[in-house]
Amino acid sequence: MGEILAMNARRKLGLAVTSALAAFALAACGSGTDSADRATVLKELARNVLAQQTAQPRQPVGPAQVQAALEGSEGPLIYARFAETGSTVIMIGIENNGPYTTYATQARQTITLRDGFLTATRGMGGDLMSADISGVRALIAARRAGRAKRVMRFLNAEDVTYEVVFDCRIVPGETRRVQVGAITTSATEVREDCTGRRGREITNTYMVDPQGRAVVSRQWTGDLIGATELRLLRF
Question: Which pLDDT tens digit goes with each residue over 40-87?
């Protein structure tokens, strides 16, 4: 139990550091500070946060940081909020592999999405190594009711991958206008209720645009990370 608590504390601290670094870096995008000075300040900020030895989340990323990120960069951007800790961060698209886009924080923690649907994480503890969500994604993208399997593979504390299988029910809801970051679109609310072994239950929610992309969502990311709220700020 002590090892689990220590691991959770390290994970929460890592998320707090990531949030603080990302918020500062993105706020500085529009300033006249040169790259060398920003790098020095970021390193100092990281040392200060680590020295505090606290898992409490930093000041959340707000509209000003989001706007600075949109104006100071090109390419895909997402906003993520980790419900377990309350930490928030803006992540930048760094790689495309077919339909999959990988987004990274300043600390090189990554989230991989397919049209807004979570398929993998790295560097966050208890990582989602891969996911087979083709059945549920097809129903959700089509905003159609039905049932499908969800298979998620996680890395445990011993670096061994284990599989979690869910039977999921997809229920579409109302359609409304959504504005997030640089995206303004109509989107349909879709709920995914899943049941696994021994009665285990999770719920994911999505706002899905006409192209089948989850522009706003709350997706279960594993036992250690919990739920992650995601917003696509720019495709």
Answer: 444 444 334 333 323 344 567 999 999 999 999 999 999 999 998 899
Q: What is the CB-side half-sphere exposure of residue 150 using CA atoms within 13 A?
A: 31
Tokens representing residue 230 in the block: 């995601």
Q: Take residue 166 and report the two structure tokens written for it.
A: 């869910």
Three-state DSSP class for residue 171: strand
The pair of structure tokens assigned to 47 is 């040392």
Rounded to 5 degrees, what are φ and ψ at 13?
Answer: -65, -40
Q: Which residue is listed with tokens 């995601």? A: 230
Distance CA 141, CA 136 (A): 8
Give the model's pLDDT for residue 182. 97
Phi and psi, residue 214, nearest 5°: -85, 95
User: Could you give the CA distance from residue 30 to residue 20 in angstroms, rounded to a whole number?
Assistant: 17
Structure-block tokens of residue 110: 């990554």
Q: Note whether 38 and 106 are within 8 A (CB).
A: no
Task: Tell me the Ramachandran region of residue 72: left when phi exceeds 0, alpha when psi lies from -120 to 50, beta otherwise.
Answer: alpha
Which helix (H) or strand (E) is 92 found in, with range?
Answer: strand 87-97
Global pTM?
Answer: 0.76
pLDDT given for residue 106 in this prediction: 87
